[in-house]
Amino acid sequence: MYKVLPKTDLPKLIGRWMEQATVYAPVRQGDFTKFEPLSDPAQADLYYAANTRYPPKSLFLPQSEVMFRVKDGEFESTEDEVSSRVILGIHSCDTRALQLLDGVFLTGDYQDPYWAKKREQTTLVVLGCADPCETCFCTSVGSGPFDKRGADVMLIDIGDEYVADVRNEKGQALFGHLPDASRKQIDKSRQVQAAAAAGMKKPFETEGIKDKLYSLFDSDFWPKIQQSCLGCGACTFLCPTCYCFDIVDEAQRNERVRNWDTCMFRIYSQEASGHNPRPTNTERVRQRIMHKYAYFVELYDEIGCTGCGRCVRYCPVDLDIRQIIRSAQAWEES
Length: 334
What we know:
Mean pLDDT: 95
Largest sheet: 7 strands, mixed
Radius of gyration: 21 Å
Distance between the termini: 57 Å
Order of helices and strands: EHEEEEEHHEEEHHHHHEEHHH
Low-confidence stretches: none
């Protein structure tokens, strides 16, 4: 189902949503944009050139999240403390990341009720990338600037209007009342999508990457590529698919809290005995790359990276994961 939305009508539509749900959208904060709850439709900035600095992953896996609390001797779960939400302006790479994390949190014998509740209560209005950033490489990892997987609605910018590709009942609840798009408008939206995909560079190939990385596990490749890495963890902090966490009991507040953690920190793999199976930065860099391009593939048959480019843009020493994968593919032991 294709609907059409004049851009001048978007604030009114957002206001309508805000009457029934919390609406998140990219909000300008200095030189960057960040997903924030809107108090005014005018705050939404859908013209941000690059991805938001922080991925919207935190709206589903908060940096710090109370899992339950004990009050007056009674157990209180917090998983139901989330109401209806709309995320407007999320890009395809971040939507794909949520799908990949669904594999982690919603499959197998145990499902994460906190993640499940937030996903259930959220409608994703995806904004396709007509002009992808030069650091993006979604096409190299099986996605694209208009990848519609996981979208409830896909917005395609055709100038003065958006064509809204309504994908399911959630999307229909938000856009179903709008007029149908004309054949001319739909054709124009397809031209925009084709042009964006054609203009993207494909910096590396992933065929055989899992087996190649396994073959390099004990090689000199990892000591070489980690030399410039500071081990700061910025890449994992900003990554939409990293999900490492720690759980602590805050005794003074009678709460159990889940906090983000990262495999790039030494203490993450430190065992109670004092032994650390990843004692140096070499092992930790290897873990990060192999988890996304080998271990995740082994478990879920998907590359655990969506090509959003945040780790490329914000690494303080310009360590580029695209170059790492290219180097891995070309590496030959001497």
